[in-house]
Amino acid sequence: MDRSSALRARYDSMIARMGLAPADYPLHFAARHDGGSHIEPLAPDGWRLRVTERGQVLAETRFADDEALLYRLVCDVAAAEGARLHAGQSANGKDPRRADFSRRMELVGKVSPAWRIRLAEELAQWLARHPYNDRSSSPAPSGQSAAKAPKGWIGPAFVITLVLGLVLGWAAAHYPLWSVWQTQQRLHAEGFAVRAAVIERHRTDGRFADEYLLTYCYQGATRTLEGRDSVDWVTFSSVDYDGASIDVVYDPADQETSMVEGNDRAGRLAWIYAAIDALLMLVIAWEWRKSRREGAAG
């Protein structure tokens, strides 16, 4: 009898001792390429267990002798039986691995008590990393409905952090508007009014709105300075040539900061930010309603 035949005979005998039919768990010595495993002998006494599919080797394990291979094969059969056992059981709040592991050890113990102890040690090591997770199945008190388990993992701390992050992000995005408004208010209150000569008129095509820029030259307290301001269409169109005079105000504490007299740049920016904020609120409201509907459906 060659090695393969002797191994098959021992394997079939062990499967029978487990109370199972060897034909249900046949041993293969040639690749079938269907995702199943087969065994290949290695010199002098070893074996190679391979899993193949469509001509590719998906996994490979080597064993030094018959005992090592047979232990693994028997444990694999016991695992398949254990999984089949608890798959058909009704939920009772117990971790299904309890029935699974108990069945495995029972079957392996029929082949060898020593192997049963070895398997129990392996399962104990696995459970140390992944303990049983039993859930209480006791009925709710009379007259009371069972509390509905919360969905998802979002807790109060996460919500607070999320809201705080959104507020800070909103404030950072609106800082340019606040900065322009502060400068505009300061110039209206403390600025010096002077006449300036227009150096350049420029129109920029924007994605949401066109921008009209005036570059001008004005006399500050100590020197001649150049400034630029974004104005509305009425102001821009009223200055119809380079060299035209316009009224500007500048900051006496910072002479390079100036603006066209009466210009409300902050107000125009506020409309743009308001439109963006409204669109953002619509998106948030849509997503909130969507999550509520999905929660109610679930």
What does this structure look like?
The chain is of the alpha+beta class. It is 48% helix and 23% strand. It is built from 8 helices and 8 strands; from the N terminus they run H-E-E-E-H-H-H-H-H-E-E-E-H-E-E-H. The strands form 2 sheets. It has a 5-stranded antiparallel β-sheet with strand order 6-5-4-7-8. The chain has a 3-stranded antiparallel β-sheet with strand order 1-2-3. A hairpin with a 2-residue loop joins strand 2 and strand 3. Helix 2 runs antiparallel to helix 3. It is rod-shaped, with a radius of gyration of 40 Å. The protein starts with a helix and ends with a helix. About 2% of the residues have low confidence.
Report a brief summary of the structure:
The protein has helices at 3-17, 66-87, 97-111, 113-129, 156-173, 175-190, 233-238, 265-297; strands spanning 34-42, 46-53, 56-63, 192-204, 211-219, 224-231, 245-251, 254-260. It is an alpha+beta fold. Strand 7 and strand 8 (254-260) form a beta hairpin.
Q: Classify the secondary structure makeup into a structural class.
A: alpha+beta
Strand content: 15-25%
* Beginning-to-end CA distance, first to last residue: 62 Å
Mean pLDDT across the residues is: 82
Q: State the share of residues found in helices, binned by percent.
A: 40-55%
Order of helices and strands: HEEEHHHHHEEEHEEH
Number of helices: 8
Spatial shape: rod-shaped
Low-pLDDT sequence parts: 142-147
Radius of gyration from the CA trace? 40 Å
Q: What strand order characterises the main sheet?
A: 6-5-4-7-8
Assembly state = single chain
Largest sheet: 5 strands, antiparallel
Number of strands: 8
